[in-house]
Write a structure and sequence with these properties.
Elements (H helix, E strand, L loop, with lengths): L3 H14 L8 H14 L3 H11 L5 H12 L1 H9 L30 H14 L6 H16 L18 E2 L7 H17 L4 H12 L17 H17 L24 E2 L2 H29 L8 H7 L15 E4 L4 E3 L14 E4 L2 H6 L3 E2 L5
Parallel strand pairs: 1-2, 4-6
Antiparallel strand pairs: 3-4, 3-5
Amino acid sequence: MHSPARCIANLVIAFLLFPASAWAWGSDGHKIVAVIAADNLTPAAQTHVASILGVSTDKKAIATAMEEASNRPDFEFRDEDKSTAPWHFIDICLQDRRADVPARCPGGNCVTAKIDEYSKRLKDGNYDRFGAAGDLAFLIHLVGDIHQPLHAANDADRGGNCVMVESRSRETNLHAVWDTTVVRRLEYDIDSGRPETTAHKLELAYASELTYPSGKDANSWISADDIAWESNQVARSEIYDPLHIPIEPCQPTVNACLNPVGRPVELNSAYLDRADKIAGHQLAKAGFRLASLLNEFWTQPARPNEAAHAANLAPAPVISSSTVAGQIVGNRRSKIYAWPGCSTYDKMAPENRVLFPSREAAEQEGYRAARNCP
């Protein structure tokens, strides 16, 4: 039985860390995945991506647009709709077997089910409230998420969020270290720290992968459940085992937040060097596999009218008649504006708030209305 002091500490940790539990790879990691995917799209898939994201079929333009789209689920959609937070991970316990994976996604409210859903929506042209561009942004982002090992693992610690660490990193928990620290180390290890250059170098390093026993290219898309299980095994062998973190009884439906070690774990240079290599491999696989997935369901070029069709399926919200001058507040980071009555109106960070006298003024500056407003 855990001591009262440890229980209190765990509750404090849970309160502080839960909001960040779904931020896989950080901004740069998702950009790396997007660039690798863009480089490996077929000409047919390129036309669909270009149509949906509203850019030319030039490879660089597509890569830039996919980079920008890759972080919308974290910086935009999460603020608009808090119910999307569980879509970024799946709590597969360390003691689970492959057959347990489907049961770890109750109600289809996890990363594996959402990858399958958005793949089908994009293939069928049946978009949801986020529109074609939003649905593609989710798919780009979630394929990155599922390759972050701690987004497919749980040791009663919220995927490492509750495991405190000692290292030279500014991050204080294991999950955050794998989200951002190892990616930044990787970037500066192989180039000047730019995600685009890192992506191209990882692409060259991992372009010739070994094949599975079945003969299928390991960089090809398999299934979301299989990839989640693969990531879970990476978490166990490359993250938990080297740190001698014991396996705790795990019930994903219980909102536990334990540090199974009971103290901060030390991340020495050897561990972090190995982590950089694992992260590089996972990011490269995510990029190649995302391209493979898009290439699989977009085998024919987009028709000229598809871009207009996609745009028309994301209707703008109706502005409240009570909106008056001075009530429009924009988020300089997400380029979204809101008004009183919107759930995000009072939640924008002060440093990101921009006041506009009218809706028209906001839109002239490139902002769009939030979708969750009355």
